[in-house]
Amino acid sequence: MGETEGKKDEADYKRLQTFPLVRHSDMPEEMRVETMELCVTACEKFSNNNESAAKMIKETMDRKFGSSWHVVIGEGFGFEITHEVKNLLYLYFGGALAVCVWKCS
Amino acid sequence: MPPKQPLRRQSVSVGRGTRKRDEDSGTEVAEGADEWAQSKATVRPPDQLELTDAELKEEFTRILTANNPHAPQNIVRYSFKAAEKVAEELMTPKQPKERKLTNKFNFSERASQTFNNPLRDRECQMEPPPRTNFSATANQWEIYDAYVEELEKQEKTKEKEKAKTPVAKKMGKMAMRKMTSMESQSDDITKVTQAAKIVERMVNQNTYDDVAQDFKYYEDAADEYRDQEGTLLPLWKFQNDKAKRLAVTALCWNPKYNDLFAVGHGSYDFMKQSRGMLLLYSMKNPSFPEYIFSSESGIMCLDMHMDHPYLVVVGHYDGNVAIYNLKKPHSQPSFRSSAKSGKHTDPVWQVKWQKDDMDNNLNFFSVSSDGRIVSWTLVKSELVHTDVIKLKVEGSTTESLEGLQLYTVGCGTAFDFHKEIDYMFLVGTEEGKIYKCSKSYSSQFLDTYDAHNMAVDAVSWNPYHTKVFMSCSSDWTVKIWDHTIKTPMFIYDLNSAVGDVAWAPYSSTVFAAVTTNGKTHVFDLSINKYEAICNQPVVAKKKNKITHVQFNPIHPIIIVGDDRGHVTCLKLSPNLRKMPKEKKGQEVQKGPAVEIAKLDKLLNLVREVKTKI
């Protein structure tokens, strides 16, 4: 019983891995959705290179929403940032990645 | 060989001639042929050029043109335009003129410089977009925990979905989305109306704090020394921009809310008729009315229902009556009369609510210059009218040709219903007569009083004494009557046309009258039978005519309206509202009985005088 439950959990968990889980956001709805999709695209594209993924996200955000954006992608970090109000998105992705996107010029 | 030549010539010609003759005759041929053969040599003209062969062979080209080579190249003609002889230019291709060499050493340069505006630096610093800090940690276990939590949530929501009907959930979601989007778009004012109202009132009360204090607590101490005279202390002044040019035509306190009163705006000027406004003010907020209604025609009178304090009936200058419902504060009246439903043909001067009739329908009366007193009933959201009485001028009925009775119609300007005897009421007319009428008799009056010389502006029954009523008129007088006696009890001449009179609700002997010279007079018959105990100019400019006055049923204040659209609230000083002095040890009875007795005493005095005469 325990084993099957464990397997079930793992399966669900694996299902969720590709689901981006927004931890904190104060963006307007539209902006948030767009940014989330962009992060997912970037992380899937550069799944083994965080720097390129971050670069892609940052450049796209700069073009779309104005300068200047900062992006951090990683598996283990802590941060304290100052961001412009209504321009922060912090989400988990892929079961092990955390992406933090904020604007501060 | 000159001599031979002529011979030769002759011989040639002869030869030729002979040839001819030869042709004709043909006999002398041999001789002529010889001479002819000899004369074949070329003959030179004397002026021929001697050229060599080579020269002769030379070719000379000749071009023929249309120009006349003999015509002169430089014709001079007299030109009348230039008044001189001008050489005509012929159409010959000219060679381009040679350019004049500018003398580099002999020209001057001119330059100028306009003023350049001085440069000025302008800087501006925008407020930077707001920033906040944010901090978090991204660890593997945190991420794992978060995902597990999310899983659990999702499972819970799935269970809930299965329990509820999916359609309802969708609707709920849609509604939620709509709500959120609406809320973000709509004005925030609607959410905070209640709070804003309270804040507005607080601000006003703070601003007019001293006035509010006066209203509640100030009692003019000087009244003790002022030997029975009183004063009116001005409190608030109510005015509204929209009603600035319109005169105050009606005032009414709300029977339920003692701080709420209605002001009707219109115009008394026959020539300048414009729109009307109905404003309801609260004393708690003197700067802006609580309710605003506007109408096309000037409002001439209004009344508030006793039992339904949210219903206001209004009479217009164009003869219409309308009922406004304060619970529905949009600008249109709830019910309105029209030409079809029997509106008056002249301005409606007064309206009064009556008790609900037998079917519990709302009922009110109106009087107008067209001589009709009409009872209106609100039947199923429609106004139905009944002519109660027509004000016929007595003695004016004449018989016309077909036997119809024609009569001139008097114009009603004011009326008042008896407080206790429900069917009896008084009507004042423009001719100065007051008729006592009954609701049940439509053709005859119970009584007629020759009250005034000019139009009666207001009639009012005494709130305590059932027999006494008061009337005022533009003929400068206020008269107090006993309805059983044809002549007035008291007559007061106020030196100026009297716009309105009102009995005080707290005493049977106190009343106020307002005149067109801006003064308010307060009389107390128990103190001074002949003169006003207070006589005070109330409005600032002398040209301001006061049009109406009303006592507040509870508080010792009166409101006074003028023809500029301002309403002033005044407090009565203690002298004006004197209760009979308590004698030591004696209980002072308060109540209507006392008031009636008070007035009776006074009247008896007057009556005695009259009977003596």
From TrEMBL, chain A:
It is found in: Cytoplasm, Cytoskeleton, Cilium axoneme. Signal peptide: none annotated. SMART domains: Dynein_light. InterPro entries: DLC_sf, Dynein_light_chain_typ-1/2. Pfam families: Dynein_light. Keywords: Cell projection, Cilium, Cytoplasm, Cytoskeleton, Dynein, Microtubule, Motor protein. Transmembrane segments: none annotated. GO terms for cellular component: axoneme; dynein complex; microtubule. The keyword Transferase does not apply. GO terms for biological process: microtubule-based process. Belongs to the dynein light chain family. Force generating protein of respiratory cilia. Produces force towards the minus ends of microtubules. Dynein has ATPase activity. Consists of at least two heavy chains and a number of intermediate and light chains. This is Dynein light chain. It comes from Equus asinus (Donkey). The gene is DNAL4.
From TrEMBL, chain B:
Signal peptide: none annotated. It is found in: Cytoplasm, Cytoskeleton, Cilium axoneme. InterPro entries: Dynein_IC, WD40/YVTN_repeat-like_dom_sf, WD40_repeat_dom_sf, WD40_rpt. The keyword Hydrolase does not apply. WD repeats lie at residues 449-482. Coiled coil: none annotated. The keyword Repeat applies. Keywords: Cell projection, Cytoplasm, Cytoskeleton, Dynein, Microtubule, Motor protein, Repeat, WD repeat. Residues 1-48 are annotated as: Disordered. Belongs to the dynein intermediate chain family. This is Dynein axonemal intermediate chain 1 isoform X8.
